[in-house]
Write a structure and sequence with these properties.
The complex is a heterotrimer of chains A (290), B (362) and C (151).
Chain A: H1 3-35, H2 45-54, H3 64-84, H4 89-108, H5 113-144, H6 164-177, H7 206-228, H8 235-256, H9 264-289
Chain B: E1 4-9, E2 21-27, E3 30-37, H1 57-62, H2 69-84, H3 90-118, H4 122-143, E4 152-153, E5 156-157, H5 163-189, H6 191-197, H7 205-210, H8 216-219, H9 251-275, E6 291-301, E7 304-313, E8 320-324, H10 326-338, H11 343-352, H12 357-361
Antiparallel strand pairs in B: 1-2, 2-3, 4-5, 6-7, 7-8
Helix pairs in contact in B: 2-3, 3-4, 3-9, 3-11, 4-5, 5-9
Chain C: E1 6-8, H1 14-23, E2 27-35, E3 47-55, E4 58-66, E5 71-73, H2 82-93, E6 96-98, H3 123-133
Parallel strand pairs in C: 1-4, 5-6
Antiparallel strand pairs in C: 2-3, 3-4
The chains are: A mainly alpha (290), B alpha+beta (362), C alpha/beta (151).
Chain lengths: 290, 362, 151
């Protein structure tokens, strides 16, 4: 990763990712509505929502949470930039986790019972998917022999060939990271849950707009991780990666519309079970073969 | 020992259909104590009986609740008919049963949708309500109104349904059956739904009996409590009637009882349509309730047994009209099942009693 | 048809009857008050209470009068859900009931005026009703001019 690649990634990811994220979110709402037999909002609705939120007055009594949410957004952008600049994958994983932790601290700082319980659930969600993400990074190193994301462009075949089970486990956990049913415990786009709105209950105006934009950046980053499994040394790989990522996103929308929400005990149990079984088997096989 | 938080649940809450306030004392996502409070929607409707005469008061009883609207107007009319000793024509009785059973279908479909929303399955919620639109369309075609439709008054019903329209109603309900079957399978057998509903809010048969519960809430614990067994009005001419029961007593059982009652209502409507006689639809009411007379009556509403008490005093204003709705008694059951449950289940427990607080508070 | 059985008892016999009903497995259906004519002696009105119990297809109603100032015994320890109706009777009619399992102390319904169904217990309401309707008597409402009212 050179200074030039970092600057290009900064400008590219920083400006293009929110547009892509906004369109992805809009498509999500439109397709969900059609699956439910409704017409649905226009595809640019997330952009209109953020524009409206930015224009609102800030009436929160707690100003600390603005700082935490801003740090969360900054970390999400930094993680994405590092990823697309070809930087260290382990560093990217930790920085994006740091972004979520800042959001949790922001929820705790608001001292409302709904936000506190939402923050507790978010912590449990992080505990559910962190083991997989770390094992996935280790599996990546074993397959590519380097922690750098840019190393995947020197391969002769995509890493999904050597890490199929890790890919499947990652798809399972992607539902948690994208905050979709059955794992939308702490915050989802539907307000009809036990905790009013979960971690963002006490946020409004510019703060909530920053949370929304953070989610756009995060969604693009996670779909890029899906694409990471399918890229290799030629440009066909990039095309395949984009198509597969979009297909997986559509699959996530389908799953969202076909499951009720589970309680945190079930989420923790299932994600750890899947992680343990699939990743261990794949990594052991990989270590034996190579 | 974790820290105790007090979470104010309601009256404004996205998952609650009605304004009820519950103060939850929570320790690490487990509810230790729940103290309910109602009173947000008390409109003093029982006092209006002294300002509106007994023929006008039907309109007030309809507006007690949007979901049980026809049930209350039917209960009121039947109580006044008992008070004054009127025997209304057969066709009016059958039409009342048809509209009441349609109310039951639409109320249960509404509730199924809210329950799906309560455990986070928005898609199922939208499908249930889309199916319910068929029933509301029937109401609009036959009476002109979708929710409050002023079809019942003392002495009979206000409008007739032609025989051709009656067959049309049965055809629409038959058309709904296949789609409803799909929804029923999801509610009863889907693993993520069962994961949320099974085992929550368990009440044994003895508990249900000592708490004097009413409606599907009681029938899900095995109690045989159904006013339609009285056989008053059109219900007396049914070939056979058995209340839908379940022995399990948890949230899943209550869902099952209500879901199967929809099928039972469709069958009752089909039977009524096939047997309906050709008589006038209403009796002209002369005179007023006599002095010193009193009457009691009860009706099986979608939520349970609704009890009515009327007292006349020789003038055109009733001296007293009392409505006791099923949710007033089910609130006691709700308090019992909220103790010791998970925070994620609070909304579901409140929803499984099918609360209708606007009926409770009038 | 619903059985129309009305049994007249006295206020003190209520508890005995409720215990008998519970022992025999009857369920509690309803309790309500209704205002009788104004008691000429005092400002408060006499309230007639109705308690309804049912078992299977039978239903029995107990009736008795409560004079102003008399206290009733609660049956909410026998029948838990009677507490909703007892709190309501207290808020709407001003009836004193002692021993309710969860006693809201008058805060069950948030009313803008106290005891609206028994306004004889509140002089300010009586004065307002007198001004609006010309009468504050709730047992004898204005009689219609024609004796045969077509519905």
């Amino acid at each position: 990763m050179t200074v030039l690649s970092f600057v290009i990634a900064l400008v590219g990811f920083g400006l293009v990712a929110p547009i892509v994220g906004c369109l992805l979110a809009g498509l999500d709402r439109k397709i969900t509505a059609r699956l439910q037999g409704r017409v649905g909002p226009p595809i640019l609705q997330p952009y209109y929502d953020v524009r409206k939120l930015l224009a609102k007055d800030n009436v929160s009594v707690n100003h600390f949470q603005d700082f935490y949410v801003a740090m969360s957004l900054f970390m999400a952008i930094l993680a994405g930039v590092l990823f697309f600049a070809g930087g260290n994958f382990l560093l990217v994983v930790f920085i994006i986790t740091l972004s979520t932790l800042f959001l949790i601290v922001a929820a705790y700082s608001s001292r409302s019972p709904f936000a506190e319980i939402g923050a507790e659930r978010e912590i449990i969600q992080v505990m559910s998917y962190e083991p997989l993400v770390i094992l996935m990074t280790i599996a990546y190193f074993l397959a590519v022999r380097s922690f750098d994301v840019s190393a995947v462009l020197t391969l002769s075949q995509p890493i999904i060939i050597s890490l199929p089970l890790v890919f499947v486990a990652f798809l399972f956990v992607l539902t948690i990271k994208l905050r979709k049913s059955p794992f939308d415990l702490s915050y989802s786009h539907h307000a009809h849950q036990e905790l009013v709105k979960g971690i963002t209950t006490e946020m409004s105006g510019r703060t909530l707009a920053m949370v929304e934009v953070t989610h756009w950046y995060e969604n693009v980053l996670f779909m890029s991780w899906v694409g990471l499994f399918l890229v290799w040394g030629s440009w066909i790989g990039v095309l395949v990666a984009i198509i597969v990522a979009l297909a997986i996103y559509f699959l996530e929308i389908l799953i969202d519309n076909n499951f009720a929400r589970v309680k945190w005990q079930a989420m923790l149990k299932w994600s750890w079970l899947v992680t343990l079984v699939f990743c261990t088997v794949n990594i052991v096989v990989l270590m034996i073969v190579s | 020992m974790g820290k105790k938080t007090i979470i104010p649940f309601g009256p404004q809450h996205p998952v609650l259909p009605e304004p009820v306030h519950v103060d939850l004392v929570v320790e690490d996502e487990k509810v230790i104590e729940a103290i309910p409070q109602i009173g947000f929607i008390h409109r003093g409707l029982e006092k209006l009986v002294q300002k509106k005469d007994f023929m006008q008061f039907v309109a007030v009883t309809e507006r007690i609740c949007g979901i049980c609207a026809f049930g209350h107007s039917m209960g009121y009319s039947e109580t006044i008919e008992i008070l004054m000793g009127l025997e209304i024509p057969k066709r009016a009785q059958y039409l009342r049963v048809i509209w009441h059973e349609l109310s039951r279908i639409h109320s249960h479909l509404l509730w199924l949708g809210l329950l799906a929303d309560g455990f986070g399955y928005e898609n199922l919620f939208m499908q249930c309500w889309r199916l319910r639109e068929n029933v509301l369309g029937i109401f609009e075609k036959t009476t002109g109104g979708r929710v409050i439709f002023s079809a019942c008054n003392v002495g009979g019903v206000t409008q007739d349904i032609e025989d051709g329209d009656l067959k049309g109603i049965v055809a629409i309900l038959d058309g709904m059956r296949s789609e409803y079957e799909e929804l029923l399978k999801t509610f009863l057998y889907d693993s993520s739904v069962k994961n949320r509903l099974s085992g929550i809010g368990y009440l044994s048969k003895q508990d249900a009996e000592s708490l004097c519960l009413a409606g599907p809430f009681a029938r899900a614990s095995g109690l045989v409590e159904d006013c339609r067994l009285d056989g008053y009005g059109g219900y007396g001419d049914l070939a056979a009637f058995e209340p839908v029961l379940s022995e399990d007593g948890d949230g899943h059982a209550r869902c099952e009882v209500r879901a199967r009652e929809v099928y039972q209502s469709m069958d009752i409507i089909a039977e009524m349509v096939s047997k309906i006689p050709d008589t006038p639809i209403s009796l002209p009411v002369k005179g007023m309730p006599g002095a010193g007379t009193a009457a009691v009556h009860h009706v099986e509403q979608p939520r349970g047994e609704s009890f009515y008490y009327a007292k006349g005093n020789g003038t055109k204003f009733l001296s007293r009209f009392r409505i006791r709705t099923p949710t007033s008694h089910n609130i006691g059951g709700m308090t019992k099942i909220l103790q010791g449950c998970d925070l994620a289940d609070v909304a579901l427990n409140i929803l499984t009693i099918d609360p209708c607080i606007s009926c409770t508070e009038r | 048809m619903t059985p129309q059985v009305f049994i007249d008892i006295t206020r003190l016999e209520l508890r005995k009857h409720a215990e008998r009903y519970q022992a025999e497995g009857w369920r509690f259906v309803n309790l309500c008050g209704s205002l009788l004519n104004l008691d000429e002696e005092s400002d408060k009105g006499v309230v007639e209470m109705l308690y309804t119990f049912a078992r299977g297809r039978e239903m029995e109603n107990l009736r008795f009068d409560v004079q102003p100032g008399e206290v009733l015994e609660s049956i909410s320890d026998l029948y838990f859900n009677a507490l909703v109706n007892e709190n309501e009777a207290h808020d709407l009619f001003g009836i004193e009931i002692k021993g309710i399992v969860i006693d809201f102390g008058g805060a069950f319904y948030t009313l803008s005026v106290p005891t609206p169904m028994n306004p004889q217990s509140n002089i300010a309401i009586r004065a307002a009703e007198q001004k609006t309707y010309g009468t504050a008597d709730y047992g004898a409402c204005p009689v219609p001019t024609s004796s045969e009212e077509e519905a």
